[in-house]
Automatic annotation (TrEMBL), chain A:
Name of the encoding gene: murD_2
Pathway assigned in UniProt: Cell wall biogenesis; peptidoglycan biosynthesis
PANTHER family: LIPID II ISOGLUTAMINYL SYNTHASE (GLUTAMINE-HYDROLYZING) SUBUNIT MURT, MUR LIGASE FAMILY MEMBER
TM annotation in the entry: 7-25
EC number from the UniProt entry: 6.3.5.13
Protein name: Lipid II isoglutaminyl synthase (glutamine-hydrolyzing) subunit MurT
Residues annotated as binding Zn(2+): 211, 214, 233, 236
SUPFAM superfamilies in UniProt: MurD-like peptide ligases, catalytic domain
Keyword Ligase: yes
GO biological process, one term: regulation of cell shape
Molecular functions per Gene Ontology: ATP binding; carbon-nitrogen ligase activity on lipid II; tetrahydrofolylpolyglutamate synthase activity; zinc ion binding
Originating species: Desulfosporosinus acididurans
Reaction catalysis annotation: beta-D-GlcNAc-(1->4)-Mur2Ac(oyl-L-Ala-gamma-D-Glu-L-Lys-D-Ala-D-Ala)-di-trans,octa-cis-undecaprenyl diphosphate + ATP = beta-D-GlcNAc-(1->4)-Mur2Ac(oyl-L-Ala-gamma-D-O-P-Glu-L-Lys-D-Ala-D-Ala)-di-trans,octa-cis-undecaprenyl diphosphate + ADP; beta-D-GlcNAc-(1->4)-Mur2Ac(oyl-L-Ala-gamma-D-O-P-Glu-L-Lys-D-Ala-D-Ala)-di-trans,octa-cis-undecaprenyl diphosphate + NH4(+) = beta-D-GlcNAc-(1->4)-Mur2Ac(oyl-L-Ala-D-isoglutaminyl-L-Lys-D-Ala-D-Ala)-di-trans,octa-cis-undecaprenyl diphosphate + phosphate + H(+); beta-D-GlcNAc-(1->4)-Mur2Ac(oyl-L-Ala-gamma-D-Glu-L-Lys-D-Ala-D-Ala)-di-trans,octa-cis-undecaprenyl diphosphate + L-glutamine + ATP + H2O = beta-D-GlcNAc-(1->4)-Mur2Ac(oyl-L-Ala-D-isoglutaminyl-L-Lys-D-Ala-D-Ala)-di-trans,octa-cis-undecaprenyl diphosphate + L-glutamate + ADP + phosphate + H(+)
Pfam families: Mur_ligase_M, MurT_C
TrEMBL record, chain B:
Keywords: Cell shape, Cell wall biogenesis/degradation, Glutamine amidotransferase, Hydrolase, Ligase, Peptidoglycan synthesis
Record-level GO BP terms: cell wall organization; cobalamin biosynthetic process; peptidoglycan biosynthetic process; regulation of cell shape
Name under which the protein is recorded: Lipid II isoglutaminyl synthase (glutamine-hydrolyzing) subunit GatD
HAMAP family in the record: Lipid_II_synth_GatD
Domain CobB/CobQ-like glutamine amidotransferase, first and last residues per copy: 4-216
Active site residues per record: 93, 209
Record organism: Desulfosporosinus acididurans
Length: 468, 260
């Protein structure tokens, strides 16, 4: 490929800024990527040219970051080095930044393999410049419709932009994803036989009620969650493809999610059955990359959940769990997980409506909060925070949570304190923020955890001191 | 006392949390001892407009909307007659557009609507997305003048509508109908004349999602009241504690007006 002077300027400027940021102790791959993009708009094409072992992308609505991180953990276990946009920087600028960081001054890449999480709306632009060797498509749900327009459009754009040369790793249980396989030769499907939560009927708000191929209503013989399950179309015969990688004997036990693929056993410390799909997607891709099952199992097991995905903190009042919420299906899964703990509950929900959260918060009414309403006797209180705290409280009122259990507290530190005030030992506490609240909240909790840790140590020394 | 609320095509028209509108209508009935009966009617199922009190038509994606206009066309006469007899209807976004004369596509092709309301929609080039505050038209929430409950907006505690719009179609109102309000923030019907929504007899059409009804309890209650009056009940609705509804409404209105 012929490289223009623009490419060299963009590369070197980008690399200088990256180093500058590192020296000044700042993180971030977005700024160098942004500037390099400005100088050479086609820079991704050049930066991606020398990955001889391939470029793997992960896209879809939910589970991109988790899937990419699981696969990264497996690749590390297999001793592979690779370029990776780790921080979830999955737009053009973030991807460019990650590639820049992995490119030497002479323009060649430092590794032969790249693993990139790509935002679904960015896929068309990305694939305009880069042809991935593997593309994992996780699922499609309603997410930030105001940013992407309607779901149909997003799915269509992603489908159209993927090259026939790319091997598609597809979720067989999601009809919106499985339809990518229609007319494609290079596909590999993964799916789930059943989970303890699978059921014959679904009352959730779901996508894809109609056949993506012909428009006739889809019939289901089993639902896993959302529109994921065993579906078939009575019109054109479109149906759930037989998965090449099928999870069986799915059991959640001792904070582990265990499952089998054929004779091989796997487990992950992630909670919630939706994470089973993320593990399966990573497993399927790893097999395609020629990694053996033993290493895959180790990699899945070694993975520790990242920021705000059912992340636990130990505070003075007890353990709290932090998890990101961003769309109805994800939120329904979180509610399911919370209720399955079978303990009295304290909950804080933080809803912001900035661009990264989605400006339109009407999705809150598609979340099945009625399930919390039906179990309101188990709920101590729900603290509503964030820019749209009032809307959240209103939603919960209509879901059947008594008003005297609802608290509106805009200040995050105050909300965290309220969550813990007077907490009894048997009560479980959850914090459920949208994206732009997540990191502030996480820092706050990490700080409190550190203080709590110090208090524990102080207590111990005092007691020991008293003994002598 | 019982009110029958029909959610038409809930499986097709349920974008943007529109389900919340049904939840609001049902809850505000229950809290007053009125029994709400929710009918969910899907494509091809039988539909009896005379048996219902409130008809809700939500928004859907373009493809799904196309499927159901065809289905509704078969029932157009019955619906028209019910509306002329005072049926309470709330149409949002796609549900609003399809009550009009036609939807003109980008290529100029006109997809006929039900033609019950004197309005039409033309496909726009950019999507109109964002929060909306609309000042209620003086008579937008008025109750039929023949009733002794005639009143205007000055009696209402809230005089605005607040919600979120997301549409590319631009809707224009004909002479026979009046707007629901005037936009203070946002684009409204067509981004040109400042109008938002429509009112014709007991039919309300609007582009506001949010969902609309939970945070606009004054509008929700007018729908219920109109439906009760139509059934011959004469009493005003009992007051509810609308602290959270009003708070959510006013917080957003104040924030948006300040930003504008």
């Amino acid at each position: 490929m012929k490289r223009t002077w623009r490419f060299w300027v963009a590369l070197w400027v980008g690399k200088f800024i990256t180093i500058g940021l590192q020296i000044s102790g700042k993180k971030g791959t977005t700024l160098p990527g942004k500037i390099a993009q400005k100088i050479a708009p086609e820079i991704m094409k050049h930066l991606s040219a020398s990955y001889t072992e391939g470029i793997v992308i992960v896209t879809g609505t939910n589970g991109k970051t988790t899937t990419a991180n699981l696969l990264a953990s497996i690749l590390r276990e297999a001793g592979k080095s690779f370029a990776f946009n780790q921080a979830g920087a999955n737009l053009v600028t973030g991807i460019t930044g990650a590639l820049l960081q992995n490119t030497q001054w002479n323009g060649s890449s430092s590794t032969k393999l790249a693993l990139l999480e790509v935002d679904e709306a960015t896929v068309p632009k990305f694939c305009g410049q880069v042809t991935p060797s593997l593309a994992i498509v996780t699922n499609f749900f309603r997410d930030q419709l105001d940013r992407y327009g309607e779901l149909d459009t997003t799915v269509h754009l992603v489908k159209e932009s993927l090259s026939p040369e790319t091997l598609l790793i597809l979720n067989a249980d999601d009809p919106l994803v499985a339809q990518f396989g229609l007319g494609s030769v290079r596909t590999c499907f993964y799916g789930v036989e059943s989970t303890p939560d699978s059921c014959l009927e679904s009352h959730e708000t779901r996508e894809a009620k109609f056949c993506p191929a012909c428009g006739i209503e889809l019939k289901y013989s089993l639902f896993h969650y959302g529109q994921l399950g065993f579906y078939h179309c009575q019109g054109c015969g479109f149906h759930r493809p037989e998965p090449h990688v099928l999870a069986q004997n799915v059991v959640a036990a001792d904070d582990l999610l265990n499952f089998q693929v054929g004779a091989a056993a796997f487990s992950t410390s992630l909670q919630g059955y939706y994470n089973l799909y993320n593990a399966l997607a990573a497993l399927t891709a790893a097999r395609q990359l020629g990694i053996e099952d033993g290493l895959i199992a180790k990699g899945l097991r070694a993975f520790i959940p990242q920021a705000g995905r059912m992340e636990r903190f130990r505070l003075t009042g007890g353990e709290v769990t932090l998890t990101l919420v961003k769309n109805p299906t994800g939120f329904n899964q979180v509610i399911q997980t919370i209720l399955s703990a079978d303990k009295p509950l304290r909950i804080m929900i933080g809803i912001n409506d900035l661009a990264a959260d989605g400006r339109d918060i009407s999705w809150l009414w598609d979340v099945d909060f009625e399930r919390l309403g039906m179990r309101e006797e188990r709920i101590q209180h729900i603290i509503c925070s964030g820019l749209r705290a009032e809307d959240m409280a209103l939603r919960l009122k209509y879901a059947g949570i008594p008003e005297d259990k609802l608290v509106i507290e805009h200040s995050l530190p105050a909300a965290v304190n309220l969550l813990q005030q007077g907490r009894r030992g048997d009560e479980a506490a959850f914090l459920l923020p949208t994206y732009t609240l997540l990191f502030t909240l996480r820092e706050l909790l990490a700080e409190q955890q550190q203080k709590a840790g110090l208090t524990v140590i102080e207590d111990r020394t005092r007691k020991e001191g008293a003994g002598t | 006392m019982k009110l029958t609320i029909c959610h038409l095509y809930p499986d097709l028209l349920d974008l943007y949390g529109d389900r919340g509108n049904i939840l609001a209508l049902a809850a505000r009935c229950r809290w007053r001892g009125i029994e709400p009966e929710i009918q969910e009617v899907s494509l091809g199922e039988s539909l009896d407009f005379t048996g219902m009190d409130i008809l809700f038509l939500g928004g859907g994606s373009d493809r799904e909307q196309g499927i159901l206009v065809q289905d509704l066309m078969r029932r157009e006469k019955d619906l028209r007659q019910a509306i002329e007899n005072g049926l309470v209807v709330l149409g949002i976004c796609g549900g609003y557009q399809m009550l009009g004369n036609y939807y003109q596509m980008a290529g100029g092709e006109k997809i006929p609507g039900l033609g019950i309301l004197d309005l039409w929609t033309i496909a726009g080039t950019k999507r109109l997305i964002g929060n909306v505050v609309a000042e209620l038209h003086p008579t937008a929430l008025k109750i039929d003048s023949e009733s002794n409950l005639a009143r205007d907006n000055s009696e209402l505690k809230l005089r605005t509508l607040v919600g979120f719009e997301n549409h590319s179609g631009k809707t224009y109102l004909g002479k026979g109908v009046s707007p629901l309000g005037k936009v203070s923030v946002g684009h409204g019907n067509n981004d040109q004349d400042g109008t938002e929504g429509v009112r014709y007899r007991n039919v309300f059409g609007t582009y506001l999602h949010g969902p609309l009804l939970p945070k606009n309890p004054h509008l929700t209650d007018i729908l219920l009241e109109l439906a009760l009056i139509r059934r011959g009940f004469d009493s005003c609705l009992t007051e509810l504690d609308d602290y959270l509804e009003t708070l959510a409404h006013k917080t957003m209105v104040n924030k948006l007006l300040k930003q504008a």
